Amino acid sequence: MQTKRSTYRHRWLPYLLLAPQLAITLVFFIWPASQAVKSSFERTDAFGFKTTFVGLSNYARVLADPGYLNALGRTAIFAVSVTVLSMGVALLLAVCVNRVIKSARFYTTLLVWPYAVAPVVAGVLWWFLFNPTIGLLPHLLDWFGINWNHRVSGTQAMILITIAAAWKQISYNFLFFLAGLQSVPHSLIEAAAIDGATPFKRFWTIVFPLLSPTTFFLMIININYVMFDTFGVIDATTAGGPGTATMTLVYKVYTDGVAGLNIGSSSAQSVILMGIVILLTFIQFRYVERRVNY
């Protein structure tokens, strides 16, 4: 068996093709991350004119702050809620669309559109829907005896940002689940149906295990999304309030660094957040991947 290998006339052509992506990664990811690590060991004055090396003082102060520890627990609940909700709804929609033959492309197009919406726009959309004064949903909830006002209720505010963040991510998860469902061999499903397996049993024992690589991939993507990309949603809906009820780790980095002008503490929080994500990714590859059937 011969393996095909791409050859280039010019030795530097592959590097030139990679140069734009490498430059973007260096300028927008590697360089800011290195500056955050550097700033986490320093103390900067409010005007940014003078920096003093303080070692691990910023990390010790952050880890001893009860507000940061509360934000850490709040972020864990937020991450699990958004991941489970967005992946669960996306899988349900993918199963429904996969059963439709003639209109599958039409439904797929409709379900993909929300992914093109910017996080801030998604946050403003759900802020209007749940606005206690002009929103439609609070008036509907009044019929069921539910008094909705996320501006004074921390629990309702957390529910709001969870729904908004999950809605933004459902389209992304839906595309991958639909592709995974379409790759499942129909012969296995037909054989199970002939053996008398119910539709639910066929899905749980055949389809879902074959979707484990897709599910594993989406778990990692969704956790990274919640940790980093939900800032716009939170800022547009609750701005971390009421009080600190929706103050997640990524939003606390912004609050302390931009609003509070505490660059050292904000940088230390950024490094810790990056370390948490790396640790979670390692744990998933080290332990969760063992249950994945490729």
From TrEMBL:
Subunit structure and binding partners: The complex is composed of two ATP-binding proteins (UgpC), two transmembrane proteins (UgpA and UgpE) and a solute-binding protein (UgpB).
Cited InterPro entries: MetI-like, MetI-like_sf, UgpAE/MalFG_permease
Compartment annotation: Cell inner membrane; Cell membrane
PANTHER family named among the record's database cross-references: BLL4140 PROTEIN (PTHR43227), SN-GLYCEROL-3-PHOSPHATE TRANSPORT SYSTEM PERMEASE PROTEIN UGPA (PTHR43227:SF9)
CDD domains cross-referenced by the UniProt entry: TM_PBP2 (cd06261)
Protein name: sn-glycerol-3-phosphate transport system permease protein UgpA
Protein topology in the membrane: Multi-pass membrane protein
Major site of localization recorded for this protein: membrane
Residue spans crossing the bilayer: 12-31, 76-98, 110-128, 148-167, 174-194, 206-226, 233-254, 266-288
Keywords, in A-Z order: Cell inner membrane, Cell membrane, Membrane, Transmembrane, Transmembrane helix, Transport
Family per similarity comment: Belongs to the binding-protein-dependent transport system permease family. UgpAE subfamily.
Domain of life: Bacteria
Positions of the ABC transmembrane type-1 domain: 72-284
